[in-house]
């Protein structure tokens, strides 16, 4: 990978990591469903008027928009709102990698290797240790909500795989059309009209920055650059860099919100990251070892 492209990839993982902290900043002033709804409203408009609809079945665009906008980011934002720290949310969401492997096996008949099963078991151990953290950065409801987000993430990965679209920027813009209305409905059902009134009253530079950061560098620019790199280079060269997202997420939460990184949290985070590394590199290393033997 060229140095400039490597820098871009590292920059995007940094953006995706600290985005969790900027979501939390926005949640100090904005309802979680409204925050996510505005995010995807601005992802769709005005771009949808200038970008051609991707040439794939409508059901893929619609289902991705619901799962990505509502099931993933709407629910993850709600989880952060209910007390899970930005750093832990960025880490736990990586469980979506393992859920994707399981879904691919169930829906696409893809084989789950023994090494991937070992990686998943190790990740579950790390998740169990996270539950035992008592420094206030983990709440059970927040943990459950982020895990639901991770499951939604796995479904979006399957949709991308099945849809087979190559123009993922166009796909993201058009799919975002179907996220805002369900999110605004959820905001109304959970908070009533007052949450919309409070949004207007409480909107300030911090809230505007939170929304803008989620829309432009995180969603539109981030996915455009990342998917461009995947088209330019082998997936095996690009995808592993995603392992840096939770590292940047935890670091960002530490510096922005002074989230404490105690021994138990450090051990649990290390175990999950090791599991992700085994899932990503394990089979290749094993194959090289067998050839060497």
Describe the structure.
With 293 residues, the protein is an all-alpha fold. The chain contains 14 helices and no strands. It has one domain. 78% of the residues lie in helices and 0% in strands. Helix 2 (32-44) crosses helix 11 (205-232), helix 3 (58-81) crosses helix 8 (168-175) and helix 6 runs antiparallel to helix 14 (263-292). The chain is globular. The relative contact order is 0.21.
Q: How many β strands by DSSP?
A: 0
Number of separate structural domains: 1
CA gyration radius, whole angstroms: 19 Å
User: Kindly state the mean pLDDT as a whole number?
Assistant: 92
Beta-strand residue fraction: under 5%
Largest sheet: none
Structural class call reads: mainly alpha
Helices and strands, in N-to-C order? HHHHHHHHHHHHHH
Total helices: the number is 14
Residue stretches low in confidence (pLDDT < 50, at least 5 long) are none
Quote the distance from N terminus to C terminus: 30 Å
Name the overall outline.
Answer: globular
For the structure shown, list the relevant keywords.
78% helix; single chain; mainly alpha; membrane; 293 residues; 14 helices
How would the blueprint of this fold be written?
Layout: H1 3-27, H2 32-44, H3 58-81, H4 86-92, H5 95-108, H6 114-131, H7 140-163, H8 168-175, H9 180-191, H10 194-202, H11 205-232, H12 235-238, H13 244-257, H14 263-292
Quick take:
Residues 6-131, 141-279 form the EamA domain. By secondary structure, the protein is mainly α. Helix content is 78%, strand content 0%.
């Amino acid at each position: 990978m060229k140095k400039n492209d490597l820098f871009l990839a590292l920059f995007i993982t940094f953006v995706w990591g600290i985005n969790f902290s900027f979501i939390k900043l926005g949640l100090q002033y904005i309802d979680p469903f409204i925050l996510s709804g505005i995010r995807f409203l601005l992802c769709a408009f005005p771009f949808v008027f200038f970008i051609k609809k991707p040439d794939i079945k409508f059901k893929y665009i619609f289902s991705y928009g619901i799962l990505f906008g509502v099931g993933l980011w709407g629910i993850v934002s709600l989880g952060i709102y209910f007390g899970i720290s930005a750093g832990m949310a960025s880490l736990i969401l990586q469980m979506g990698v393992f859920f994707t492997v399981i879904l691919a096996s169930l829906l696409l008949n893809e084989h789950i290797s023994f090494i991937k099963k070992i990686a998943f078991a190790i990740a579950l151990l790390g998740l169990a240790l996270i539950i035992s953290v008592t420094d206030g950065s983990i709440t059970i409801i927040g943990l459950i909500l982020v895990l639901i987000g991770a499951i939604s993430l796995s479904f979006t990965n399957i949709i991308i795989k099945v849809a087979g679209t190559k123009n993922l920027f166009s796909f993201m813009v058009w799919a975002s059309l179907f996220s805002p209305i369900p999110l605004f409905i959820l905001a109304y059902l959970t908070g009533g009209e007052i949450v919309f009134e409070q949004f207007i009253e409480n909107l300030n530079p911090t809230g505007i920055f939170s929304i803008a950061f989620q829309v432009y560098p995180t969603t539109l620019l981030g996915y455009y650059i990342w998917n461009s790199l995947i088209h330019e280079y082998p997936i095996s060269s690009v995808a592993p860099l995603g392992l840096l997202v939770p590292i940047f997420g935890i670091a960002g939460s530490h510096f922005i919100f002074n989230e404490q990184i105690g021994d138990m949290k450090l051990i649990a985070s290390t175990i999950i990251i090791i599991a992700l590394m085994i899932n990503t590199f394990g089979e290749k290393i094993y194959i090289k070892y067998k050839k060497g033997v």
